[in-house]
């Protein structure tokens, strides 16, 4: 029976090319936009190079200090010493890395200026992340202890700085802010959409201008805490919060008197949303609501249009419905026929959307709009597209099918 429904649907598609084009265009365009959005969100918050361990990583990004009335607040990243005392000492963690936010700098090749993003980090930065080394190796604890002026650069910076980028550059010098550093490693870069690992040049935290000697609580450093297993994230969080609870209150930071101190350690998605919404649970629910509303509009409006198109298409088949009802076809059978037909058409549109999405993703990845972009149609994105296809098929098929299947035999034959 199912095969017969699909054959009928195929005949219907061939019977009215214009309706078929409009229907498939609406389905494929909507699904293409939806899959591109899903792919970008996966690129933004998923576990991808070089942050492939996000599922067992906690991010410590900000210290928040408030007075007792919560009227005044100081919020900042932390000092290297603060994170060494309270994050590095978490025994439940597998590793803890302390590093700075990337910040701007300049390098010069002759009279040409190259704008850079630079990061200062400890040696564990290369163990918590999964950078691919094209040349050389990362700096280690010995380089840091010796105060070596060394650097790891990206392949993109190598192309811009060195005249012959095809030759190995390990051991060569790069001059940044009038200081010479020896290149000891070249890595494939991290996209700017992954701000914890993005930079053009990476220095040991002992390099000049890192300000790692700051003895206060605030500074320009953050941390990633790697748990041994995703199931141990709660234990790591609990131990870190126990460390923070040992800080005496009230306190004074640079003249700011505080009675409340908060330092969060969150998985990436929660940290990402907290940064956007300042941690307010009510605002977070609003954010989810807005996302849900947008998704509903993206799916719902085209579905309404498809319902109207399908009503017009099925009205032309009213005589067929009348004949089938005259021979005893029940309402349920007629409804299932139209629903199956519509789902079949929707899946064809979904197949077209997958092809269009793949082409657009390749264009985005190779265009340079997002440096090191690695958008993909992975299993999650494909699963979303399948679910959406089913939703579209049902939304745009049930109403016209129900309406047509309830036509009386006389009215159907007269149409």
What is the element layout, followed by pairings?
Blueprint: H1 2-15, H2 17-45, E1 57-60, E2 63-66, E3 73-76, H3 80-86, E4 93-100, E5 103-109, E6 112-121, H4 125-128, E7 133-136, H5 141-146, E8 150-154, H6 155-161, E9 173-176, E10 179-187, E11 201-204, E12 221-227, H7 233-245, E13 251-253, E14 256-258, E15 260-263, H8 268-277, H9 281-315, H10 318-326, H11 331-367, H12 379-405, H13 409-414
Parallel strand pairs: 6-11, 8-10
Antiparallel strand pairs: 1-12, 2-3, 2-15, 4-12, 5-6, 7-10, 8-11, 9-10, 13-14
Protein name: Putative ABC transport system permease protein
Pfam families: FtsX, MacB_PCD
InterPro entries: ABC3_permease_C, MacB_PCD, Macrolide_Exporter_MacB
Structure commentary:
This protein is an alpha+beta fold. It contains 13 helices and 15 strands. It has helices at 2-15, 17-45, 80-86, 125-128, 141-146, 155-161, 233-245, 268-277, 281-315, 318-326, 331-367, 379-405, 409-414; strands at 57-60, 63-66, 73-76, 93-100, 103-109, 112-121, 133-136, 150-154, 173-176, 179-187, 201-204, 221-227, 251-253, 256-258, 260-263. A hairpin with a 2-residue loop joins strand 13 and strand 14 (256-258). The model has no long low-confidence stretch (mean pLDDT 84).
Helix content: 40-55%
Q: Major sheet, described briefly?
A: 7 strands, mixed
Distance between the termini: 26 Å
For the secondary structure, the number of strands is 15
Q: Which secondary-structure class do the elements indicate?
A: alpha+beta
Q: Roughly what fraction of the amino acids lie in strands? A: 15-25%
What is the total domain count?
A: 2
Mean pLDDT, to the nearest integer, reads: 84
Quickly count the helices. Answer: 13
In N-to-C order, the SSE pattern is HHEEEHEEEHEHEHEEEEHEEEHHHHHH
Tell the overall outline. elongated
Radius of gyration of CA atoms, rounded to a whole number: 29 Å
Query: Low-confidence parts lasting 5 or more residues at pLDDT below 50?
Result: none
Transmembrane segments: 21-41, 286-307, 334-361, 381-402
Membrane topology: Multi-pass membrane protein
Domain MacB-like periplasmic core: 20-241
GO molecular function: transmembrane transporter activity
């Amino acid at each position: 029976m199912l095969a017969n429904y699909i054959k009928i649907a195929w005949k219907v598609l061939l019977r009215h090319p214009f309706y078929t084009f409009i229907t498939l265009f609406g389905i494929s365009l909507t699904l293409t936009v939806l899959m591109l959005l899903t792919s970008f969100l996966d690129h933004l918050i998923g576990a991808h190079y070089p942050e492939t361990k996000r599922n067992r990583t906690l991010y410590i990004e900000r210290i928040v200090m408030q007075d007792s009335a919560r009227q005044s607040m100081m919020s900042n990243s932390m000092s290297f010493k603060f994170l060494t005392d309270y994050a590095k000492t978490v025994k439940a963690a597998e590793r803890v890395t302390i590093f700075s936010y990337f910040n701007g700098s300049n390098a010069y090749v002759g009279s040409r200026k190259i704008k850079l993003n630079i990061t200062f980090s400890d040696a564990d930065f290369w163990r918590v992340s999964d950078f691919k080394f094209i040349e050389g190796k990362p700096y280690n604890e010995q380089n840091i202890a010796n105060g070596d002026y060394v650097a790891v650069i990206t392949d993109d910076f190598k192309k811009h700085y060195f005249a012959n980028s095809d030759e190995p550059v390990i051991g060569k010098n790069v001059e940044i802010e009038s200081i010479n550093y020896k290149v000891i490693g070249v890595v494939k870069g991290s996209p700017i959409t992954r701000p914890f690992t993005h930079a053009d040049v990476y220095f040991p935290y002992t390099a000049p201008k890192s300000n790692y000697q700051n003895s206060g609580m605030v500074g320009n450093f953050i941390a990633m805490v790697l748990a041994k297993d995703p199931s141990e994230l709660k234990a790591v969080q609990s131990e870190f919060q126990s460390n923070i609870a040992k800080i005496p209150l009230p306190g004074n930071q640079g003249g700011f008197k505080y009675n409340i101190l908060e330092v969060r350690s969150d998985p990436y998605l929660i940290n990402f949303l907290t940064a956007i919404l300042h941690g307010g649970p009510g605002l977070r629910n609003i954010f989810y609501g807005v996302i849900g509303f947008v998704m509903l509009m993206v799916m719902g409006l085209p579905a309404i249009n498809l319902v109207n198109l399908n009503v017009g298409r099925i009205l032309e088949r009213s005589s067929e419905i009348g004949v089938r009802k005259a021979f005893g076809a029940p309402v349920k059978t007629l409804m299932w026929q139209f629903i199956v037909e519509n789902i079949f058409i929707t899946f064809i549109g979904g197949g077209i959307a997958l092809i269009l999405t793949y082409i657009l993703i390749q264009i985005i990845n190779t265009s340079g709009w997002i440096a090191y972009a690695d958008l993909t149609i992975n299993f999650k994105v494909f699963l979303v597209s399948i679910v959406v296809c089913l939703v579209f098929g049902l939304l745009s098929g049930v109403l016209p099918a129900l309406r047509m299947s309830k036509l009386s035999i006389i009215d159907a034959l007269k149409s």
